[in-house]
Amino acid sequence: MSERLLTQKEIDELFNKYSEKPIQEEALELLTMHELDTIGEIGNICMGTSATTLSELLNKEVIIGYPKTIVCYQEEVFKAFSTPYLIIEVRFKAGLKGFNVLVITEEDIALIADIMMGGVGELQYPINLTEIEISAATEVMNQMIGAAATAMSNIFGVTVDIEPPRTSMVPDLLTANHSPLTTDKPVVVARFDVKIGNLFKTTFMQITDVDTAREEAFFLLMKAGMFDSPGSDAAAVPPAGQATSKVLFQEMPNLAGALAVPSEVLFTLGKLQWTMGDVARLHVGNEIDMPFKTGNVELVINGLSVARGKMLRNGKLQITQICKPV
């Protein structure tokens, strides 16, 4: 299996730079750490839904890890990318304002396109991308972002709609525009480790303007009952840096706004259909009605192990361990 991670030295250095303080100093007035944590949860849910879409399109198992999220200026981000890469920008036309951007490498485009066109995910060097490969990869990313928009609609309780994606291939770092996005504010950068079958591992980079990110965090917290519903004066997005100052996150570790999102839970002995609310209520000692025989069981969502348990003689599953994301 190839491991052509986008986590090259420059990207590692960028995220390591913000490991202790994920939010750049100049951005502290725009976004709080509570909001950034909430945005990470939203990204995790949305990319999990996108992983299901990608898996169906490629007919391969897709595992997307928990995001690492930082806030910095876009120049710093794009200078760290190794060219060639493809920028796929989607703007919201309903529900949210602003944009969402995915960045993928030339090799990822070629591999995804090869699988889409019936290949086995092999690269031929030198890579020579045509409009066919770029269009195939763009369509895949478009459907992934569309699935993420649907997930956000379910989470926020409002219709989230997107415009057709705009793509831009960046062939050369020396001539690249390091400020391709229409914002002069810092951006929220989420890094997702992605594994596609036994073929390859890579990293998807998702970039969101800070105003959209704050709006997403507010919608989720409003859904969780932390703010008033739309229609009241209190429902407006709070001033920058103040949205979550009074929220006690330790009392809502699984974020109540995500509880109604449908998710297929894979058991080692079979499958059941659950919501994220079912997952959120898991705790050690739970007993769950299961149509399976006795034995040890692992609960898996989008390739991530969320809990382990054992089958009891009464036909129920007893949770023995809750697995935290790495």
UniProtKB/TrEMBL annotation:
InterPro entries: CheC (IPR007597), CheC-like_sf (IPR028976), FliN/MopA/SpaO (IPR051469), SpoA-like_sf (IPR036429). The keyword Disulfide bond does not apply. Transmembrane segments: none annotated. Keywords: Cell projection, Chemotaxis, Cilium, Flagellum. Residues 35-65, 133-168 form the CheC-like protein domain. One of its GO terms (molecular function) is hydrolase activity. GO terms for biological process: chemotaxis. The keyword Chloroplast does not apply. SUPFAM superfamilies: CheC-like, Surface presentation of antigens (SPOA). It comes from the Bacteria. This is Flagellar motor switch phosphatase FliY. It comes from Pelotomaculum isophthalicicum JI.
